[in-house]
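Private note to self, pasted from the team thread so I don't lose it. Backbone tokens:
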């Protein structure tokens, strides 16, 4: 997946649970169905909880990539 296929992004590094999920959910609500959102999440609780909660909302996790610096890049397709 290339950068130009991303419709929007959120840097949620340093944002605690559940605020990082709330911000993700609000951003997805503003987006069109089929759009792609990229979020950056810290290791630990954020990467464990946010993708699971996004899936429970019915969206699709396209890709999770661990980046240098102990954070994750998560691609979400809005349902």
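Design output:
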């Amino acid at each position: 997946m290339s950068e130009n296929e991303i419709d929007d992004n959120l840097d949620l590094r340093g944002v605690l649970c559940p605020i990082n999920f709330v911000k993700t959910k609000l951003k997805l609500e503003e987006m069109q169905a089929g759009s792609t959102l990229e979020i950056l999440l810290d290791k630990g609780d954020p990467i464990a909880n946010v993708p699971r909660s996004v899936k429970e909302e019915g969206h699709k996790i396209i890709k999770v990539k661990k980046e240098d610096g102990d954070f994750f890049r998560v691609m979400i397709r809005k349902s």
